[in-house]
Every structure is written in C-alpha cells, then in structure tokens.
Predict the 3D structure of the following.
Amino acid sequence: MFTVGHPGVWLDAVQGTSAWMFTIFLAVVFPIIDYVLYARLKSTLQIYAWNILALWSLAGVCVWITRTNYLTLNDLGERPGNAHRVLLISGILIAIIVLLIGAQKKQKKKLNQERLNKSLDRVRRMLPKTSTERAVWIVVSITAGVCEEILYRGWLLSLFAATLGSVWLGLLISSIIFGFAHTYQGRNGILGTGVLGAIFGLLFIFSGSLIPGQVLHAVIDLNNGLALGKVAQRAEVRSAPE
C-alpha cells in the first residue's frame, strides 16, 4: 500500500557510507550548530539569512547524495502521488489550516500578557516585527516548507523505513530528529515540532507525495510567524519606556 522507503529502491543508500555520513550530520551535527548560532547571531535578519542558506544548502547536498545512491527526486517524494489520496488529503489540509487559525485566535484571547510574553521568550528573536522582516519571513517559510520536508520526511523517514523495514519506525525516528532540530525553541518547541513532524510524515506516507506536507508546512510557518510577530511587536511597544 505504501511506497515510502521501499527497501529495494533504497538498498544502495542503506548500504552507502555517504548516505549515513549525511544522515549523522543532519541528525546530530546540524542541530548543535543551529543552536549555537541562534544564540550568537545578533539580529533577526541574520537568523533568517542563516536559516535560508543552511536549509537550501542541506537540501542541495541531500539531492546530490540521493543521485549518487541511484535515487531520484521521485524517490524522495517530489512526485504527484496517488491522485485520489492527494485530493482527499488536500481537503483535510484546508480544514486543518482553518482550524489552526481559529484555535490560534482563541488562544491569544485567553492568554494574559505575562503568560503570552513567557511563551514567546524562546522564539522572540525569530519572529518578524518589521515590514522588512515580514517580507523575508515569507522566504523563510517557503524555505522551511520545501527543504525541511525533503530532509526530514523525503530523506530521513524513507532511509530509516528502508533500513528497519518499517515505515512507522521511520516516521517515529524522523519525527524525533525533527523535534530536536528545533532545540533552540526549548522543551515545548521540541515537543511541538516533533508532533508536527509526525503529522507531516503521515501526510507523506498516505499520499505518497511530499507536496501536501510542503504546502501545509509553509502555510503553518507563515501564519504562525506573522501572527506571533505582531503580538511580540505590540508587547515591545507596551514595555518601551515613555
């Protein structure tokens, strides 16, 4: 039923040194570098530039490693997938997006300013608060949607599924790694992105395509960033000295 991480197709990658070296870098080394740089970069735009450069570079290396192991973009999931499932999942995606936006608005109304500020502490430097930052945030969101789905679902989920002979173990491991890739967001950020990673992984498994997850990922990041950025901007204005 599922075509993700077919052991026969991914045999060269499973047995390939380059594939596992890249996987170790993506799962262990990159999160450490990202965590350190997030703390040291001085401005929001510098953080954006690093994210865009890092993710597109990693995606480019991933595509190269894919080809050297006799795989194609189609094997990574960059394909139309099952038409009926994609249509069904696209409808579900629209419903999810509408529900998320509605839930976000209700949550913001319930939270008092102190609790809201506390929840934003870990990601405040990442949020777009000026018109320039909001414009660049669009690029950041698209980059995350396209590249992270290739890396964490198309590559990691498929590779571990082929190696272990279970798409569900591939989903679990790739979701955990995705969560820890967002360590700079703190414990709640790790848990939240891990759950989102599992949702994106399920979309990939059931549709046979990365495209629905890439669209949902980009839309969620775009909506959350712009909405929380406005909240952070208002909080800074209120706390500014008279």
In short: The chain has a mean pLDDT of 86. The two ends are 64 Å apart (CA to CA).
